[in-house]
Design brief:
With 158 residues, the chain is of the alpha+beta class. The protein has helices spanning 7-15, 27-43, 52-61, 86-98, 137-147; strands at residues 65-67, 75-77, 103-108, 113-117, 122-127, 130-136, 151-152. Strands 1-2-3-4-5-6-7 form a 7-stranded antiparallel sheet. A hairpin with a 4-residue loop joins strand 4 (113-117) and strand 5.
């Protein structure tokens, strides 16, 4: 996983995946991705509503796939996702502890872990080893995700 420490490093990493300043995939692409994942989570018993920060993140990064490891199948994929059936329950539990809504915006293909964002633009990581806070805003979230120096999400419970 690359260790990204600055906005410039994040932009360079994402540029390699096809991102560019001003990238906007449009309302239709975001709506299709959101509808698909909302339906998947609903089938698992959880109602999701994307927040403004989640929608803005997806408009800019949807469908990017950036290498995060040394193996060709280790990617950060920027799309809303339900990796495992248990993710809906885990997401609901974390949202309850945080007393806010969460929406998935990316995943790690190596671990099957999901990145979620709340309406305050805080990013969290639902990983098999626990739930973690990544950072504030898109750059804080991506830098935190790629640093692998995660803060425990419990520190943010209300």
């Amino acid at each position: 996983m690359p260790i990204l420490k600055t906005v410039e490093e994040v932009d360079a990493w994402l540029t390699g995946a096809g991102w560019h300043p001003g990238r906007d995939v449009g309302d239709q692409a975001v709506a299709e991705a959101v509808t698909k994942v909302v339906d998947q989570y609903r089938a698992q018993g959880l109602e999701l509503t994307p927040s403004a920060p989640a929608l803005a993140f997806l408009r800019e990064y949807l469908d990017l796939k950036a290498l995060i490891g040394t193996e060709p199948e280790e990617f950060a994929v920027f799309t809303p996702w339900l990796t495992n059936a248990g993710d809906a329950e885990e997401l609901a539990e974390l949202a309850g502890h945080l007393r806010t809504e969460l929406f998935p915006v990316a995943l790690d293909t190596y671990d099957g872990a999901v990145v979620v964002v709340d309406p305050s633009d805080r990013f969290f990581y639902l990983h098999w080893s626990g739930n973690y806070y990544l950072g504030q805003g898109k750059y804080g979230g991506i830098i935190g995700w790629q640093s692998a120096d995660y803060e425990d999400a419990e520190d943010y419970y209300l």
